[in-house]
Every structure is written in C-alpha cells, then in structure tokens.
Amino acid sequence: MKHIAIFASGKGSNALKIWEHFRNHPEIKVVLIVCNNPKAGIIELATDWKIPVLLISKEDQENPEHLLNELQKHKIDWIVLAGYLWLIPEALIKKFPNRIINIHPALLPKYGGKGMYGMKVHEAVKIANEKQTGISIHLIDEEFDKGEIIFQASVMLDENDTPDSIAEKVHQLEHKHFAEEIEKIILKD
Fold this sequence. Notes:
This protein is α/β, with parallel strands linked by helices and about 190 residues long. The protein has seven helices and seven strands; from the N terminus they run βαβαβααβαβαββα.
C-alpha cells in the first residue's frame, strides 16, 4: 500500500476529489493531511474522513525535522500538493525526490514562479488576453514550478471570460484530471 500525505492551505476541493478517488483504492491510500492554515476548510474535511491533520507553522517550514518525523511516522511514500501555498523545504525535496506532485493552475512554463498562484494566475492570464489556459501537473524540485511536467490539459477562453470564470474552468480541469494522474504516477513507481 502506497501512503499519500496531502498538503493543503485552503478549502480543500482538490483534496476532496483526491480522497474520493482513493478512499477504496486497493494500492493507494491518503493517510495524512498537512496544513499551514488553522482556519482552512480542509481541516473539517479531514475530520469527516477520520484522517489525521498535521498543522504546521513557519517554524516547521524553516526547521522541517518535526514535519519529516511525522511523515516517517505515517509511512508516507508520496506527497501531493493540493492548493498548498508555501515553498516546500529543501530537506523535504531531498527526502522525497521525484515523489512530490503539484498542480499549477496554468500551462507551465507560462504564469509560473514565485507569487504566481490562484487568482493571481487567472488575473495574469486575463490581462494577457490568452486564448487558452489550463493545468499543469508536475513534480516538485528546488525551484518554483520548474519540476518535470507530467500532464497538462487546456481549456479555451474568450473575451467574455473574467478571472472568476477562468478560475472555474481551471477548477473543472483540476477536479477531472488530478486524482487520475496522481494514480498513474504512483502506480508506475
């Protein structure tokens, strides 16, 4: 059985889709939620799922030994970032090489890098009058949004789209593809 830790900072809509996908999976199981926001909706979801939550602080981020110990205690094989807004510590990247999966709300390499997340990405896409946008599922390395791209899916935009409507289109792609692509990556291992 492969154990996943989901790192999330927000309401947890992607985490919900991932949990639903794997809750009865014979080979993959979500066993831990790691969150940096004590008010995040993901905490309530994890409580409903009866999955432990590890609430981390900036100190845990800067000195990740406690985090690494907790991941080891839960026998984590893979980390999935589902709306997690902090940079992953280098020690974590070294401990889980090519085993940290992220989803980015744009077609990388466009609109990636430090500070490019959530609505900031959708606003930049709108300002640039892009004709399409999408998602990129990629492995994490030491640089923001530079890891190997595993999967991309796109959606067409028109002049009537707003950052909010772009966000909704991208969320639909995330919910449709993220869990399936995680499964493919992990089962290839």
